[in-house]
Predict the structure.
Amino acid sequence: MASIKLILRKHQADQTGHSPLYIRIIKDRKTKFITAGVKLKENEWDEAKQKVKKNHPNSARMNASLSQKIADAEAQVADMERKVKTVSISKLKDAIKGKEVPNFFDYAYKRCEKLKGNLAFSTHRSYLIYTKKFENYLGTRDVYFDDITVSVLLDYISHLSNVMKNGVSTQRYSIMILAIMFKEAIKEDIIPEYMYPFSKLTLTKSKSVRTFLKKDQIEELLNKNLKSGTSLELARDMFVFSIYAGGLRFGDVIELQYKHFNEEENRIIKQIRKTGREHQFKIGKVAIDILNKYKKENPEPNDFIFPIIKHKEGYFKNEEFRYKVTENANRVCNIHLNRLGKEMKLPVPLTFHMSRHSFATNALNNGMRIEHVSKLMGHQDISTTQIYAKIISEELDKAVDKYIF
């Protein structure tokens, strides 16, 4: 026989000192909680009498409502246990709560589809992957919003760290996706705000480490004698081009078309994929030489400069196809760059994104104003660019420690 009782969950108190009241069900030593839709201060609840104290202005009405809820719950439990010989506590919870609190995964997957048109393909894909990851951890889809408590999330974080060996960034992102679904449900008035458990979590934020190549390392890479026409040479050339072209991201480099390059002014004018904003800037001799190296005879304005994208029509029409082409090309490029980095005996793996960091640090080191670096990189907030200034300051400190006695 299941037992039913009202519990004030004081550990979920909000900033005003109000805690949510829950209906607690215990069966076969397993416990489930269902929100009673009430929030009270600790001094307004009589645990022994299971009643709202008279110091609450609406105590009589609230007690009548709570008594009715308990009576309905007990009736539902009795009816279920009479009809079904072996009934799980989850089924009892379903019977009591009805449609009061929705199933988390049913909502999350449906919400992902609704958001699909407003999200980048990669973001939408991440929402689905990380929601499924949480479902796999729980081992069931039969989970309601109020089942996802702070303790459940802490256990999940522990699993991500100790079992799956995920780093702190992946752990943080795994939890953030779940939090987004809660926020969407609150925004749609599907669940009350006090069900949001994430405000009580403290997630470790990984220290951002931006590695970069110094001027002599860039020159060493550029002067490497590589076999002409190979994908290894192409990876190297695109990487160096990015360094000398404002730190363009990989997706923007492979999408660079002849119409984006004004030869008379040596200027690139292109809409940046990540921000959607038009970006224009002049490029110097090294970048121009690389563009000329790959220049076709009589190219069309829509032709790509670097020979990566083979199916132009499908690439721009199908976002999923575009994402997969970019992801695969980036993976192959990073394999080649890592090989070159090992040959150069670099202390860290060489990846394409390091070209962006290399541009910023070298530009600042050469005296370019931080506002100009920020503009070239397309940063919305100059504080993002200031991270690179901090790196240069740290490098200077190391030099002082090493050479000044």
Q: What stands out?
A: Residues 59-83 form the longest helix (25 residues). The chain has 15 helices and eight strands. The two ends are 79 Å apart (CA to CA).
